[in-house]
Amino acid sequence: MAQGDPPRPLDEEAAPTPSRRRFNAIEPPDRLRDIPSAILHQPEDTQNDIDMPPTTSKQRRRASSQGASLDQDVHLVEKITEHHDEGEALAGTAEGEESVLYLAYGSNLASKTFLGMRKIKPLSQIPVLVPELRLTFDLPGIPYVEPCFAGTDFRNPDAPEEQDSESSNDESSDLDGEFLSEKAPLMVETRELRACSRTRQWNKPLVGVVYEVTLADYAKIIATEGGGRGYRDIVIDCHPFSDGYKSTDPVPNHPNTPSFKAHTLLSPAADDARKQREALQNGHKPAALSPYPGASLFDLGPHMRPDPNYAQPSARYLNLLVTGAGEHDLPVSYQKYLSEVHTYRITTIRQKIGKVIFLLLWGPVVLSLLGLSKRCAGPDGRSPPWLVSLSNLVFAGLWNSYDLFFRRVFGDGERTLDS
Q: Across residues 195-224, what is the average pLDDT?
């Protein structure tokens, strides 16, 4: 839709407008497949002449809630792997077509990534709201290059809506003046403590797009997103936008359209937090959870940052989300939020020097892991457990070297310094 065109209702059966990990990946080799272009300064494919799929029909959505539907099979990933090895096919939808509904909300919204670079060919697609989830930017990448990626976290749809984070920006200047004027030695620490409150957050339902894809393409998605190990495949309720909804309308906190089932890839950290909360609510002791299905007690979990709201995404990565949201004509308020997310910028000579040294030190290691993950991947594209543990160990060392040395010597590699 052109900038000056009137908003178009997201009609369920209307032809869609053009439409790529929670970019949701925690397994470093697969999660960071987008990083080589940033490390090597290679331009991305900007192909735009891609035919967009039709809107997912009501009949297909209704079929997702049937008992035998693959769309609500929580063991689908394991079954894809098993049947792939045996050369067999899985039972498909009510029409007999083997397909699955997959919810995308990160860089997979952009057609040049999802359809172009990843070569996924959706059978259909539809924009949706997910009241149980909200958008975050808390998945660690590489300091100075790709500090973080988009993810999701569980939210309580019935909780009172939080105050818009825009107001926190106004209040922070007064707080800074009060606390920083007399305590200069505490300036850096105080600013870091207030970083979370200055970060814009999307507290409304997750906005995304559900793609209908073949099982072969879904296995490819799992492979490129680390879903078999780093991700946990979950089934979530998705709500299409109402027939009369316009992109200029507010995002509803409680969508009133019939929900349907779709698979999405969730970070283990968010999934573990949900399970811990549910265990406490039921009066049970939270159990120790493994980094991924089939992991042993000695396997290392993925590295997570101490403050999930501190890091800022790169302009390159955020542009994929902004572009994808525009291609799918997602709500204007959501597009506005994405366009106003602060991106990471290097602002000092020290940071530039630190970036060069950091990439010289860790770049070859990361690229080697990427090559190793492709070479050792199984039929479903998943890395073996030993490689997952090795990757987690490498990225723990990468971030520890940043925290203990690079950040102190060369400056912040996650968040743009205040001018």
A: 79
Residue 251 binned pLDDT confidence (cut-offs 50, 70, 90)? very high
pLDDT band with cut points at 50, 70 and 90 for residue 98: confident
103 labeled binding residue:
yes
- The residue ranges of DSSP E strands in 155-269, in sequence order, are 206-214, 232-240, 260-266
CB of 297 closer than 8 Å to CB of 289: no
Asked if 161 and 204 count as a contact pair (C-beta separation under 8 A), the reply is yes
Cα–chain center distance at 239 = 19
- Check whether 296 is labelled as a binding-site residue: no
By CB atoms closer than 10 A (0-12, 13-18, 19+), residue 407 is middle
Is residue 39 scored above 50 in pLDDT? Answer: yes
Look up 225 and say whether it is catalytic: yes
Report whether 211 belongs to an annotated binding site. no
pLDDT score of 40: 53
Closest CA to 153 of 234, 270, 263, 311: 270
Which residue of the set 12, 146, 225, 327 is catalytic?
225
Q: What token pair was written down for 283?
A: 């009066």
| DSSP-derived secondary structure letter, 408 | H
Whose CA is closest to 108, among 222, 194, 214?
A: 222
Q: Is 317 annotated as a binding residue?
A: yes
pLDDT tens track for 147-183: 998 888 888 777 665 544 433 344 433 434 443 444 4
